[in-house]
Structure formats: structure tokens, C-alpha cells
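Recall the central idea of this unit: under ordinary conditions, the amino acid sequence of a chain determines the structure it adopts. In this exercise we apply that idea directly, starting from the sequence alone.
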Amino acid sequence: MSKEQVVAGLIDGEDICKLREAVCVQVEKVYDHCREKDCIEDAVVDFVEDVQCLIDKAVKVRVKEAEVVKVLADLDDVPFKRGFFTVNVRYKIKVKVEFCYRDQFNNLVSSDPKVGFVWFAKTVILFGSEGQVKVFSSTDPEFCSSTDDGDGCGSMIQQDNKPTVKVEVAEPLVLNARIKRVHCPKKVRPFGDDYDEIEEEDNVAAGRRPIFPQKNVVVTIGLFSIIKLTRLVQLLIPAFNFCFPTRECVASTDENPCELFETIDFPFDQFFPPQAFDFPIEDIREDRRHDRREDREEREKEERRRK
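Accordingly, the structure predicted from this sequence is:
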């Protein structure tokens, strides 16, 4: 590898002179995006197995683990607003709940974690632009099979030209878990791509309304996510050269595990967590400005409600 070769990483002014060509690449361009900070309050946990007996005798519950296991999204055009879409996003959150109850000797014992799911849905409006073309591709092996018209290796047709939804989500924060009496709680259950909402009126119409509300496990979850609308576009970018690897791979074998371990830096941050002044000052200032802005908005909302 020549010393004059530019490699991936930071560049300086001298590297700019080594630009070789303008390259046309196809990439996913983000047309619009937004960040969401959702507090899912008192969401009913839908357990995989029947745990009603545990719920009835439990003294308290605690969530041992929570993770987003599936995100489903679809798009609808916004009427009279060209290029804008309503993005309907549904999160499936898996939780493991541990029940604490008293045994026959009045000792507090815990059950094995029980798996349940929480569904949360929200809708946002984002700009996704317009397009009037169909996209054909013959590179996907999934479509390289005999077709009805006898063309052999067929082409994939993108039937619509709507933008693509991208959702980035952090691991959820469990803020609270408790047992609460809920009178026929609304549940959202997936059946294929459809979602049936079961409400109290369904049981009332069938004559199954319970006398007393049933006990359920409810959780309050904090969720951070970023929702994007992207499209495949062609961009012209400057290029230095092909990106050649500059180092050889390090293999982990039975002969040299300790040698590989010696190359790993000691994780000081795990033993000594960073303090406030260790973070960039601008990040701290931005967080404080954001908090003050939220407080001001809350006060304005409260004043409007009082009026």
C-alpha cells in the first residue's frame, strides 16, 4: 500500500488534492425525520401463558427485562398536502415479569420470570416527497425463478413508489410496574398485518361483563426512537479511490487467546463512570436548554387550561 494512498478516517488539506473522480452512487437519502420520547403509561401486559393465579396472589411485581422485538409501520398520504405522509408505527415490546408473593409460611418468594408483550402505536406526519416511477431489479435471487409468463429469471417490481420507513429505537426503560384492576382493558393483538382492538363493549354485548374489574399487570415504559422517511436516490460524490483494507484480520484461535486479550484496552469507564465535566460542554448546554424549553411549554399549556 502506497504511503500516498488516502485511507478511511480524518483527512487534511493535502488529501483534498488527491481526489480522483466524481462517482455516481445510489443511496438512501433521508427526506424527513423526527425524534420521539414516549412515556407509555399503565400499558397492560399480555402474557404468553395463563398467569392469572400468580397475579391474584402477588404482593408486587417487577420487570426483569424489556426489549423491542418488532416494529411495524405503514404509510398513508396526507390529503391536500403533497409529499407528506402519515406514518403509523407499532412497537411490540417483550417484557419478563417476576411475581413476588407469600408462601404458606408467610415468606416472600419470587416466581420464575414470565414472558409477556406490550403493544404501543403512534402516528406522525413526515415529508417523503413524490415519485412516479416503477423500479425493476433482476439482482435479487428471491425473484430468480420461473414466472407465470415464462421469462425465467424474473424481475422484482416495486408496485408503489412510496418512501421507506426507517425506525431506530433504543432499549426501553421500565419506569414502573404494578398490579392494577382494569375493567376489560383494550388490547391490540396482531393477526397477520391486521390489528383487532378488543374493547369493553365486546364483552358487554356477549353478556360476559365481569362484576369486578380483573387484576392485570400494567407497566410504564419510556421509549426513545427516531422515525425516518427515505428514498433511493443517485448522488454525485467526490472519490479518492477504491477502499482497500489497510490491515490484516486478527484471528482468535485456541493457541493465542491471551495474546488477543492483551490487545484490549482496560475498560476504565466501566469502573469509573464519566462525570458531567467529562462530557462535551455543548451537549450539556443543549440538554439544559431543552429541559428549560419543555418546562416553559408545560407552564404555557397549564395556563391555557386554567383560562
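The first strand starts at residue 21 and ends at 44.
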